[in-house]
Amino acid sequence: MAAPTVLVPIADGSEEIETVCIQDTLVRAGVSVTIASVMPEGRLQCTMSRGLKVVADKSIEEAAAQEFDAIAVPGGMPGAKTISESSVFMECLKKHAGAGKLYGAICAAPAVVLQAHGLIPEGAPATCYPAFAEKLDAATRSEERVVVAGKLVTSRGPGTAIEFALALIEQLMDKLDAEKAKGVAKGMLVMGVA
């Protein structure tokens, strides 16, 4: 069985802890992760929100030609805004979500990327970084660390990045061993997992 595939877009100003935690945790579960830069002219190296340099695997133009089992958007500003303004990425994400596939966002990205483009279904609960919470629908806004609503997974910020990635693994279970998320969490000494 082929490994599940996940696309993680990045830009200058993306949150490095979220990006790396998503990638690392998913890889530990046997997921194939593609980091794609949305920066102009195919520039692969991005300067993250705290100055760390991350080199993407490919440009968003190259990645958009592929199909993925899931798309996970890290937060960080102005990275989330730059990702939201990428017409190539947003077309890819809208097509992906429209096909009923798994997608998620963390930190500022649920508000700045998903909500801004109508990608949080009406009535679906969602969470995000507290400073961006007013951008989410007040009736369905959650303060939970991670919220799973159908094929949508949202989370609050850097401190919830591993939990967010574990929730993505759980949602990919039809493509992974049923105990994979629990095993990865246990191996990483995530609290509350025996």
Explain the overall architecture:
This protein is α/β, with parallel strands linked by helices and 194 residues long. It is built from seven helices and nine strands; from the N terminus they run βαββββαβααβαββαα. It has helices spanning 16-28, 60-63, 79-84, 87-98, 109-114, 161-171, 180-187; strands spanning 5-10, 32-37, 45-47, 53-55, 58-59, 70-73, 102-106, 146-149, 152-155. The strands form two sheets. The protein has a seven-stranded mixed sheet, with helices on both faces. Strands 3-4 form a two-stranded antiparallel sheet. The longest helix is centred in the N-terminal third of the chain and has 13 residues, at 16-28. The chain is globular and about 40 Å long. It starts with a strand and ends in a 7-residue tail after the last helix. The mean pLDDT is 94.
Strand order of the largest sheet: 5-2-1-6-7-9-8
First-residue to last-residue Cα separation: 28 Å
- What integer is the average pLDDT? 94
Q: What fraction of the residues are assigned to beta strands by DSSP?
A: 15-25%
The total count of strands amounts to 9
| Global structural class | alpha/beta
* Largest beta-sheet details: 7 strands, mixed
Gyration radius, rounded? 15 Å
| Topology pattern, helix = H, strand = E | EHEEEEHEHHEHEEHH
Tally of helical runs = 7
- Give the % helix: 25-40%
Short description:
This protein has 194 residues and is α/β, with parallel strands linked by helices.
